[in-house]
Amino acid sequence: MSRPELLSAHKFRSDGRRPKELRDISLSLGTHGHADGSALVSHGLTTVLVTVHGPREAKVRGNTLFDRAVLSVNVDVPVFSGNGTTKRGRGDKRTMEFAANIKSTFEPIIQTQLYPRSQIDIFVQVLQQDGGLLQAAINATTLALIDAGIALTDFVCSITCALHDTVTLLDLTNVEESDLPNLTAAVLPRSGNITLLTLETRIHVDRFEEMFRMAGAAGKVIHAEMLRAVQTRTERLVKAMGKGGLQEPSVAVVKPTAKDLDLDVDMEDI
User: Fold this and answer.
1) Prediction pTM value
2) CA 260, 171, 267, 193: dihedral to nearest 10 degrees?
3) Which end of the chain is more exposed for a tag (fewer CB within 10 A), N or C?
C-alpha cells in the first residue's frame, strides 16, 4: 500500500488543510459534575477529557509539603482511543513520560504556594487520538484547572509543529506525526515564554527558529479560543446564580471552523 501524500504540489495537506491551518477545535468546561473542575477538548479527531480534584488533603500525609501543594497527574489511554491493540497501563513507559510532561508543564504555572499542605490531582483520559495528543491534554488541563478555580500565573496553550522539506506544518494528524520531524510547544501567551518543548528528532537551527515562531503565533490563536470558552462558562454560571443556583444542562462549547483558524499570514506582522 502506497504512503499518503502529506503535502501536495498545491500546498494542501492530506486532510485538505493549508500548512499553517489548524483543525477544528471544540472546548467544553464543566463536563464532569463530580470533579472540582473538568474540561473536554477536541483538536480534530483527537479528544481528551481532564478532571481536576482539589486542592484537598492528601491521602498520604507524608507526601505533603508545608509550603505548597503537591501536584499529581494520572493518565489513562484505553484501547478504544485508537492507540493500538493493547491498553497502556499507568506503569507503561510512554504513559509515565506523558504524565511527567504534563506535571513539569504546570508545576511552574500553578500558584501552589497558595495551597500549602494539600494535593491537586489531575486525571487525563484519552477518548480518541489522531495526532497532537500532548497538545490536547495540555490545553484541556489548562481549562480544567481554571474551571476548578485554581490560581494560575497564565494560560498554557499548546500546539504541535512539523517540518515537511522547507514547509512548516501546524496541528499535526497522526500520519504527519509519524512521518515528519516534529515538536510540541506549550506557550504562555501573556509573557511569550515556553513552559514545555518536546522535540522528536534533530532539526536544523534555522528551521527550528521558524517552527518556534509559528508555534508562538498558533498559541495566541488557541489562547483566544480558550478565553472565549472561559467567558461563556462564566456567563452561564452567573446566569445560573441568578436562577437560584440551577445551571443549564448545556456547557460552554467553542467550535471555530478550520477556515477561521488559518494562520497563513506574514509572520513579520505578528
Assistant:
1) 0.86
2) 110
3) N
